[in-house]
Structures are given as structure tokens and as C-alpha cells.
Amino acid sequence: MKVLLLLHWLGVFLSCSGHIQIEHPQYHSPPDVVIPVRVTGTARGMKPPGWLSYILPFGGQKHIIHIKVKKFLFSKHLPVFTYTDQGAILEDQPFVQNNCYYHGYVEGDPESLVSLSTCFGGFQGILQINDIAYEIKPLAFSTTFEHLVYKMDSKEKQFSTMRSGFMQNEITCRMEFEEIDNSTLKQSSYVGWWIHFRIIEMVVVIDNYLYIRYKRNDSKLLEDLYVIFNIVDSIFDVIGVKVLLFGLEIWTNKNFIVIDDVRKSLHLYCQWKLDNITPRNLGDLFSSCLSVFPE
User: Fold this and answer.
1) Where would one find the signal peptide in this protein (predicted)?
2) For residues 134 and 106, is the Cβ–Cβ distance under 8 A?
3) Which of 83, 184, 200, 264 has the most Cβ atoms closer than 10 angstroms to its Cβ?
């Protein structure tokens, strides 16, 4: 249940059907302005290699986060498919920085979750502390490493609606899992670890509505998608599932299915996937369509 709640706080409506609808996150109050302060090993005692610690003062408290760089978040040669004006498909393999996505925990809360990116300057991501989720992002044009921390909305009514959607829609697209050994070092303060975990190899399709909302800015769209994907991977890591991004497709000209009803869109999308994604031989993949309904 906590995994579903975290997805809701993230602002992503996941209908458990391979179709994801993006919504705008909601906040309880104005943000706290914070300056993360690096904590050295001598100040807090020695941590295992690779772990970094920061103090984040917000919500009337000083929180100490411990984070470590993720490995294997993206495919080594991540294919991104787009379309020409004439409808021909194009494949590119843009450089994806993969050493700036972090996961971790908040000191004093063994069930906490931290998922951050530093790829685009400053910290961007979420922190979940005592069942409360916060979004953190850099303050634009700050010269002193200032960040904004928002408390995210988690109204029970909204969560109940989301949970109902899960129950009504049965998943019909296949997920392929592969069990592998987990070589991650167990942390004495961090309980989000499993001896074995499973892998979801995923292809994400960006629909034309979302592409237009981003003003057809491929770079910004991909930046935000990578941050979201890092968060999703962190959430599922809690239950021993590793999510790997193996491919992306952006419907740059038009939508190839009707996106106005979850059930109908699911059926159409699964058929489109079988006809278009599966023949590309990317592997045994779970595919999701990332969209925003037109206003």
C-alpha cells in the first residue's frame, strides 16, 4: 500500500494497466527554502564507501539524508524513437548521464525513502519521511545552492479514488521478470534491501498530448522523464523490484491510439505494442504509455 501512496504523491496516476496519466502535483503550503549542507565522514562517523550525507533543514527540523549513486538505471545504449513529419520512424541513442541518480534514506526513519537526481544542477526528486512525501528542486538562478522543499498533498479521498482505479482495471500486458543476485551492501540503518530482487525491463511511450504540453522540447521532456523514472525505480526497489529503462518512444506527430478512456486505451495500446514495440526485439519488456489527457 505504501508503494501506491508514494506513486500518488509523485503525481503519477498509475492505473495498473500499462497506461499512465500525468497529473499536476498538489502542495499543502508554500515551500521551505533550504541549503543542503554536506556532512563529512569525520563529522558523522565513517560510512561505507560510496555513501554521501547531507543536512536538509525543513519543516522545523534538521533532516540528515544518506544517499548513494544508483547503478543500471538505464540501458547502456538507450534507444529513443521519434517520427518525421512524413511519419517515418527515427532511432537515436542520445547520451544519458547515469552517475547522478541517487537513492537512500533519512537518518532516524528506517522506512524512509530518498530518490534524487543531481544531473541538471542541484537536488531534484522526492523524500518520504514518516509517511509524508516532499518534493525538492533547485531554486532557479540561486547562487547559494538554495532549494525549494514542498510538502506534497496526500488527501485520503484522492487516494481512495486511485485505489478504486487499480481494482477496476486488470493488467493485460505481460511483465517479464528476471531474478538476479543483489550485491548491494546492507546498511545497518537502511532496511530497504533484499537478498534477491526482480527486474522490470521497460519501454516508455510518450504520447502526443504530453509532447505538446512540453512545447515539443525533447530535451526537457527527457530530463523530467529520467528524474521520474529514478523515483519510480526507488519506489519499487522497496519491494525488491528493479526497474530498468530499455527504450523510449515519443509520438511527435500524432497519437497512434485513441486516449480518452482507460479501458479502451489499454486494449488499443496493448495491440499497438504487439504490432510495433515487440518486433523491435528489445527484449522481454513491460511497456507503458505516458500521457496527459487533453484539456
Assistant:
1) 1-18
2) no
3) 200
What confidence tens digit (pLDDT) does each residue in 118-153 have?
998 899 999 999 988 899 999 999 999 999 999 987
Residue 60's region, left for phi above 0, alpha for psi from -120 to 50, else beta, is: left
Look-up of cell digits 494497466: 17
Q: Cα–Cα distance between 57 and 153 in angstroms, integer?
A: 20
For residues 21-49, average pLDDT: 76
Beta-carbon contacts of residue 105 (< 8 Å; ≥ 6 apart): 65, 66, 112, 113, 114, 187, 189, 190, 192
CA pair distance 211, 27, nearest whole angstrom: 25
As a whole-number percent, the residues of the chain with pLDDT over 70 amount to: 69
Instruction: Give pTM, 2 decimals.
Output: 0.78
Q: Average the pLDDT over each of 2-11, 207-216, 228-237 and give the range with the smallest value.
A: 2-11
**93 neighbors 80 (Cβ within 8 angstroms):** yes
CB-CB contact of 180 with 196 (8 Å): yes
Domain coordinates of the chain in residue numbers?
2-291
Nearest to 242 by CA among 197, 203, 282, 204: 197
Give CA separation, 214 vs 16, 24, 250, in Å: 25, 13, 12
The 10 Å Cβ neighbour count of residue 174 is: 12
42, pLDDT greater than 90: no
Half-sphere exposure of 34 (CA within 13 A, CB side): 27
